[in-house]
Amino acid sequence: MKMLEDAFSYANQLGARQGAGAVYLHAHHPDILRFLDTKRENADEKIRIKTLSLGVVIPDITFRLAKENAQMALFSPYDIQRRYGKPFGDIAISERYDELIADPHVRKTYINARDFFQTLAEIQFESGYPYIMFEDTVNRANPIAGRINMSNLCSEIFTGQ
Q1: Which of 12, 122, 126, 154 is catalytic?
Q2: Nearest by Cα to 123 from 54, 71, 28, 68
Q3: CATH number for position 113
Q4: Which of 2, 73, 124, 158 could serve as a FRET partner for 58 with CA atoms 20 to 30 Å apart?
Q5: Catalytic site includes residue 156
Q6: Which Pfam families does the annotation name (predicted)?
């Protein structure tokens, strides 16, 4: 992500302002907590992201797990690709959550869903990031074929213009 941050700051918009970009990661990705930590004010300078915008893709299942004060699974993207023949972002996690949990061939780790949202809120308070994309809401409203699994910098892709 540091390389992306450097690349975007190098590019500019005809000298008017620095280039900018956003990176989105799914809430059920195993690196989600490290990803969020890059925006902490007290993060080590080696990992701290200052200008790159961050976003988190959150499916409905994550909210249900938090409501139940349950553990949420973080799934190996490599295992999902190998097992299901699709990239992690192309899998509807809410629809396939129980199947993925039951699959012994998909490595997973667990964190408490409420703790995840607490961390998310703390980092948003500190930095204003990450952006939040409600994955299932966006895809229910999507009129075209295919899944939306991230957004652009200012979320214009959701305006339908």
Answers
A1: 154
A2: 54
A3: 1.10.1650.20
A4: 2
A5: yes
A6: Ribonuc_red_lgC
d(CA 94, CA 1): 27
Joined tokens for residue 149: 């699994």
User: Each residue of 94-128: pLDDT tens digit?
Assistant: 999 999 999 999 999 999 999 999 999 999 999 88
- pTM comes to 0.85
Q: Quote the CA–CA distance of 146 and 78 in Å, as a whole number.
A: 21
Mean pLDDT of the chain: 85
In a domain, residue 77? The reply is yes
Total number of domains in the chain:
1
- Asked if residue 111 belongs to a domain, the reply is yes
Domain ranges, residue 85: 2-10+27-158
Q: Is residue 22 a part of any domain in this protein?
A: no
67 neighbors 117 (Cβ within 8 angstroms):
no
DSSP assigned state of 120: H
**Pairing between β-strand 131-134 and β-strand 108-112 as defined by DSSP bridges:** unpaired
Q: How remote is the C-alpha of 80 from its chain's centroid?
A: 16
Q: What beta strand segments (E) does the chain contain?
A: 22-26, 53-58, 71-75, 108-112, 131-134
68 counts as catalytic? no
